[in-house]
Amino acid sequence: MRFINPIPFVRDIGRARAFYRDVMQLEIRADHGNFVLFEGGFALHEGRSLEKTVWKQSDGDASTSYGRRNLLLYFETADIDAAFARIAPEVDLIHPVETQAWGQRVFRFTDPDGHAVEVGEPLVT
């Protein structure tokens, strides 16, 4: 067995698709309407349809965010300052670029569904 990828639930698949394609600059590998797979294995699934598939019911509350402060989506980039300059105006920042205790520079923000996203520079070991 091997782990493939996390699949965050999203309320508006069109908005989420556009955010990860345009703001995060991820390339779409497959788009099945309610499921989008990006290069590198990151994927999104429209929440109401996946709730019905997995649990055979939907919570039906379109106003509640799927982001629950219990998941962090992590991305890396070689140019953290350029990524911050491009992404920061488009998102709700959690914090700007900061050096972590382990020496890595990162910034964090929330995506359109409230999921926490971290962008960091590659950690040199």
TrEMBL record:
Residues 2-122 form the VOC domain. Keywords: Dioxygenase, Oxidoreductase. The keyword Manganese does not apply. GO terms for molecular function: dioxygenase activity. The keyword Oxidoreductase applies. PROSITE patterns: VOC (PS51819). It comes from the Bacteria. This is Glyoxalase/bleomycin resistance/extradiol dioxygenase family protein. It comes from Rhizobium wuzhouense.
